[in-house]
Design brief:
There is one protein chain. The chain has about 150 residues and is of the alpha+beta class. The chain has one domain: Alpha-Beta Plaits, CATH 3.30.70. The protein has a 5-stranded antiparallel β-sheet, sandwiched between helices. About 35% of the residues lie in helices and about 30% in strands. About 30% of the residues are buried. Helix 2 crosses helix 3.
Length: about 150
């Protein structure tokens, strides 16, 4: 019996009302609480650090750093990965992303790999913002402010 995760990421399978064809993008999602004295730096420093560290890697399709509107210490970082080995790339780079957030980290809340669905290209474009907003709504992070990396 296959796991739900493998069915979602595999093309051609319809699971629990998800679209036919599987996800073309995998998203590595890290949620954490920033240190009180570092929270004000996250929105400007992390996008640059992520792009510098991951920007040239095969399959890297962009990222977002999201700061909660009502609590500036609550941070969500999402990196997007495309290609045949998108889930593997997501998993391989989780360690690097954890290292990038470490200087700002008070404590981790959640780290997960998601199948990302939405309209638009995998590289940042005007349509990518809508795709990210849809993903944020699905993951329950509706009150987040988007900061594309």
């Amino acid at each position: 019996m296959q796991s739900l995760d493998s069915q979602i990421f595999r093309g051609g399978t319809k699971v629990l009302g998800l679209p036919q064809g599987g996800s073309a993008v995998a998203a590595l999602n890290i949620e954490f609480v920033a240190k009180p004295n570092e929270a004000h730096k996250v929105h400007s420093a992390l996008p640059v650090a992520i792009t510098g560290a991951l920007g040239e890697l095969d399959g890297f399709a962009g990222s977002f750093v999201m700061i909660a509107n009502h609590e500036a210490r609550l941070v969500t970082v999402v990196t997007l990965w495309s290609g045949e080995d998108r889930v593997q790339r997501c998993n391989e780079n989780a360690r690097w992303l954890r290292a990038l957030v470490a200087p700002y980290l008070d404590r981790f809340l959640r780290v997960q790999t998601l199948a990302a669905y939405g309209s638009g290209a995998t590289k940042f474009s005007p349509q990518s913002e809508q795709a990210c907003i849809e993903m944020v709504q699905v993951t329950g992070l509706i009150e987040e402010a988007l900061c594309p990396a």
